[in-house]
Amino acid sequence: MEKRRVGCFKKPTIAPLISVIIPVYNASVYISEAVQSAVHLTDVGEVLLIEDGSKDNSLAVCKQLVEIHHKVKLFIHPDNKNLGASESRNLGIKNATYNLIAFLDADDVYCKNRFTLAIKKIKSQIDIDGVYCAVGYLDEPNGKVFTLRKKLHPKMLFHYLIRGTYGHFHTNGILLKKTIFEKAGYFNTDLTLHQDSELWLRLAFCGNLVGGELTHPMALIRRHAGNRIWIGQSTESKLKSYYATLNWIRNKNAGIINTFLLLRKISKLESKKENRLFLTTMLKNLTRRIFP
Question: Alpha-carbon dihedral of residues 267, 271, 274, 275, nearest 10 degrees?
Fold first, then answer.
């Protein structure tokens, strides 16, 4: 009788798929926890730290993390300049090894099941370019959740992101194929704020983005006084972002309704800024659009 050999078969390993990009600016207190939340995830093949000219000791902490974790790589801008989140994320994308790209802010963390459903989704159909999931707040179980409250057909995503009817997704909650950036472009380096939202519109227009886990957070945002995203937001910064989208779709078939909705958002902000009637501002913008 043949004896069976017990324990000689190894469980097949899963090849890493994801490059996680973390821009780092004055985040020495938080960056280690952010990296820890990413490096131990099976699907993560590398964590790219982009040091953005921090004034604290973030660079030293990043160098230590490279020594500790073989998955961690460090990139620094020429002359260690502070070039902003867009330049930093773009540098990470262009140097990423793996086919899938994810982002994490240096003061935030991933949940243990961050990529479980997203990977299944992106493997299920060859034409899916990305998966977006819900993101919540750290230590705030009843806090706001950044999510789209309804699963939308990819062809309708651009429309509903402009409208904002069902909410929006967060940078920490998106997983993208690297190839989509060749179609839609990279983060807009002319924008110091809202550059992520502006890129998501371009990605939604050019590719197929689908919803993953939209109820339970797959990543967590940390609230603190130094959050770059909360500092400097204004009517002007929002206008600059919307105008960037409007200029981008100028020669594209975005549709009359989508263009109208975008002009309406711009007109509302401009009427508030200039203390003018909304209808007057909207008419002016429509006239400019029709007769440039």
Answer: 180
Tell me which residue of 119, 118, 145 sits closest to 132, measured CA to CA: 118
CA dist 158 and 249 (Å) reads: 11
Contact 212, 132 (CB under 8 A): yes
CB 109 within 8 A of CB 220: yes
Residue 121's nearest CA partner among 221, 191, 200, 210 is 210
3-class secondary structure, 106: coil
Q: What kind of fold does domain 18-221 have according to CATH? A: Spore Coat Polysaccharide Biosynthesis Protein SpsA; Chain A (3.90.550)
Mean pLDDT of the chain: 90
d(Cα 161, Cα 233) in Å, to the nearest integer? 19
Helix (H, G, I), strand (E, B) or coil at 72: strand
Phi-psi region of 224 (alpha: psi -120 to 50; beta: other; left: phi over 0): beta
For residue 223, what pLDDT is reported? 83
Q: How far is CA 189 from CA 32, 178, 192, 196, 227, in A?
A: 27, 19, 7, 11, 19
State both tokens at 120: 């299944």
Domain boundaries, the chain: 18-221, 235-290
Note whether 78 and 51 are within 8 A (CB).
Answer: no
What would the pLDDT profile of 124-141 be if each residue is shown by its tens digit?
Answer: 888 999 999 999 999 887
User: What span, in angstroms and rounded, lies between the C-alpha atoms of 203 and 215?
Assistant: 22
